[in-house]
Amino acid sequence: MAVKVLVTFIGQQLIADVSQVENTESKEVVGYWVKNPRVVNYTRDEETDNVGVNFGPYCLVTSENEFALRAEYVVSILEPTAEVAEGYTKAVYGDNPPATEPTEAEAFAQEAVEPKAQEGITPAPETTETPVNDANNTPPVEGPDNAGSPDGTTGDGTQVPPA
To answer: How far is C-alpha 69 from the geometric centre of its chain's CA atoms?
Structure first.
């Protein structure tokens, strides 16, 4: 789940921990599961013209804090600013916020860097740059004459060190 702002078809703005609900056969999004939803309210200080953001309960007549919203009732899904997400988290969870899951982008980046062992993927071995030993950027030759040349060269005129 991730903290998102949902704008409903009636213009209501909700902030909640949100995840998609999909049809298992068609993979079509049919709704959104919301946890700890709050209605976003705005206040304006007339003297300073500053805008304040407040969070109110979504439904005062129930104690349920998780439920589904049908996809057709949601017009837009927005990412809250860091300040608003922090305020929501503090308002809902106090000083003990739940462990956060990585965003899709963070999870993708982490998987690209740290492949999962259970999938049978192992990271490529680390490589180091090989220094070159001449003007042709030819890497140093180790071991016997690779070209099999009787004169002790590699075939391009580079002298092979003795083995």
So the answer is: 24
Strand locations in 45-111, DSSP E? 51-57, 66-70, 74-78
| Paired strand residues for 15 | 5, 38
Maximum pairwise Cα distance, the chain: 95
State the Cα angle at 90 between 76 and 53, rounded to 5°: 50
Give which of 42, 31, 44 is closest to 71, Cα–Cα.
31
Could you give the CA distance from residue 55 to residue 83 in angstroms, rounded to a whole number?
Answer: 13
* pTM, entire model: 0.58
Q: What is the pLDDT of residues 54-64, one digit of tens each?
A: 999 999 899 89
The answer to whether residues 55 and 15 touch, using CB atoms and an 8 Å cutoff, is yes
Domains observed in the chain: 2-116 (2.30.30.100)
Instruction: Quote the CA–CA distance of 161 and 148 in Å, as a whole number.
Output: 13
Q: Look at residues 80, 87, 83, 24 and name the one whose alpha carbon lies nearest to residue 55.
A: 87
Q: How many CB atoms lie within 10 A of CB 140?
A: 12
